């Protein structure tokens, strides 16, 4: 059965192109033109992924993203932003968008981003064996994609989970932001603030004191590393 993608964009020309490319790639596609209709469509029949424009009538994309993140099913979100709207893009990532593209964008690149996010949402990436990673009350099961802290299940986005698992697989190793973009996002180039935002969100969820992190530490002038408790 084809995976379902909900496209939310009030620009009919852009939406028609996006829908056509996604359908050609084998996805079942539904389109709505405003934020309220998007929430209604998700409630009626949850999709496997939402392509969400920021600039929407009725409810804007940021509010739609926030409300979707309140749902327990954690539907993945690829956000579309105007290329100059850096503050909105960062806010979208902070609210839990899994990926983003700046307009104007290549429809082929969008299909690749959608495919990547859906592949990760379905389980461990191909070629990577399932693992159970543990450290001081933090447990990450990469097969079913479940993370727990002291027995309490954490609500992580796809990228947050992938970033945490990658760092825990390589304890005490410092990664540059560009390396993390490549290895976690699969981007050979891109806005490195994406990594910074996701690290900040992860710290809020796994650190006892996010302002003074013990697990994911900053390596000044380099990037980040995961510091195991027994180091």
From TrEMBL:
Molecular function GO terms recorded: DNA binding
Domain (Response regulatory) ranges: 4-118
Annotated ranges, domain OmpR/PhoB-type: 130-228
Entries under InterPro entries matching the protein: CheY-like_superfamily, OmpR/PhoB-type_DNA-bd, Sig_transdc_resp-reg_C-effctor, Sig_transdc_resp-reg_receiver, WalR-like, WH-like_DNA-bd_sf
Protein name per its UniProtKB record: DNA-binding response regulator
Cited SMART domains: REC, Trans_reg_C
Keyword field contains Transcription regulation: yes
Keyword field contains Transcription: yes
SUPFAM superfamilies, per the entry: C-terminal effector domain of the bipartite response regulators, CheY-like
Sites of 4-aspartylphosphate modification: 53
Keyword set, alphabetical order: DNA-binding, Phosphoprotein, Transcription, Transcription regulation
Organism: Micromonospora solifontis
PANTHER family per the UniProt record, alphabetical: DNA-BINDING DUAL TRANSCRIPTIONAL REGULATOR OMPR, REGULATOR OF RPOS
DNA-binding residue intervals: 130-228
